[in-house]
């Protein structure tokens, strides 16, 4: 005879219709749902004596109830929760990536960058949820119009290696006359390291040989950004 280990457990199908996540979304719109309820719709089913909403709450707890942290979790780490296999884990992370791309798509319609805040706003969606340092370069013309951007390297938790030859090869191919560098600090500390300052100065000096001017180096984190140009370190 089966004994329910959780006597308070009630399957979602037995909930009042107005409280069931899918029906609630249809009636009141997605904004009326909690994070757990939205996740429950994605994962569809719970596990034994816990509903999909209960399982969604466990997922959020693993991410410290922070959606930005959830986007950084590896699928296999997520699938360690009982009731979350790889298929459900991949579904959740695919949804997080779609949300990130939506944000990036709206921002990247902007074609002219005039200050550090604009550059940070452009790059932050690209670097969101990265658990390791990633280095981007933006290519601009004399009018500060964005000609394109490229990820130059990805590294570890505290550093990344930048190949300046690849950077300037791309800049010349795009007929760029200005550059903006950007990388993230997963630690959240926005202050540049000595290595950050050194590579910035190296790229600035090399650019002068090609009449390509480095106008800023932006460091982004969850709390904001730092501009080396604005802080007088360029």
From TrEMBL:
<dbReference type="InterPro" id="IPR020891">
    <property type="entry name" value="UPF0758_CS"/>
</dbReference>
<dbReference type="GO" id="GO:0006508">
    <property type="term" value="P:proteolysis"/>
</dbReference>
<feature type="domain" description="MPN">
    <location>
        <begin position="111"/>
        <end position="234"/>
    </location>
</feature>
<protein>
    <submittedName>
        <fullName>DNA repair protein RadC</fullName>
    </submittedName>
</protein>
<dbReference type="Pfam" id="PF04002">
    <property type="entry name" value="RadC"/>
</dbReference>
<comment type="similarity">
    <text>Belongs to the UPF0758 family.</text>
</comment>
<dbReference type="InterPro" id="IPR025657">
    <property type="entry name" value="RadC_JAB"/>
</dbReference>
<dbReference type="GO" id="GO:0008237">
    <property type="term" value="F:metallopeptidase activity"/>
</dbReference>
<keyword id="KW-0479">Metal-binding</keyword>
<keyword id="KW-0862">Zinc</keyword>
<keyword id="KW-0378">Hydrolase</keyword>
<keyword id="KW-0645">Protease</keyword>
<dbReference type="InterPro" id="IPR001405">
    <property type="entry name" value="UPF0758"/>
</dbReference>
<dbReference type="GO" id="GO:0046872">
    <property type="term" value="F:metal ion binding"/>
</dbReference>
<dbReference type="InterPro" id="IPR046778">
    <property type="entry name" value="UPF0758_N"/>
</dbReference>
<keyword id="KW-0482">Metalloprotease</keyword>
<dbReference type="InterPro" id="IPR037518">
    <property type="entry name" value="MPN"/>
</dbReference>
<dbReference type="Pfam" id="PF20582">
    <property type="entry name" value="UPF0758_N"/>
</dbReference>
């Amino acid at each position: 005879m089966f004994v329910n280990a959780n006597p308070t457990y009630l399957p979602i199908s037995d909930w009042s219709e107005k409280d069931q996540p899918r029906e609630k979304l249809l009636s009141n719109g997605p904004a009326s749902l909690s994070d757990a309820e939205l996740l429950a719709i994605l994962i569809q089913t719970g596990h034994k004596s816990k509903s999909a909403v209960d399982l969604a709450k466990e997922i959020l707890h693993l991410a410290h109830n922070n959606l930005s942290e959830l986007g950084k979790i590896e699928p296999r780490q997520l699938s360690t929760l009982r009731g979350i296999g790889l298929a459900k884990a991949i579904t959740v992370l695919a949804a997080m990536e779609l949300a990130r791309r939506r944000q990036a798509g709206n921002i990247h319609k902007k074609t002219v960058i005039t200050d550090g805040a604009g550059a940070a706003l452009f790059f932050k969606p690209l670097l969101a949820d990265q658990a390791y340092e990633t280095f981007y370069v933006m290519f601009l013309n004399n009018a500060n119009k964005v000609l394109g951007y490229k990820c130059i390297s990805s590294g570890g938790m505290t550093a990344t290696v930048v190949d300046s030859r690849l950077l300037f090869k791309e800049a010349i191919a795009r007929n760029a006359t200005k550059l903006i560098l950007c990388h993230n600090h997963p630690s959240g500390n926005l202050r540049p390291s000595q290595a950050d300052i050194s590579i910035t100065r190296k790229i600035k000096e090399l650019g002068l040989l090609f009449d390509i001017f480095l106008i800023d180096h932006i460091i982004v984190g969850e709390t904001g950004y730092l501009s080396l140009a604005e802080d007088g370190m360029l």
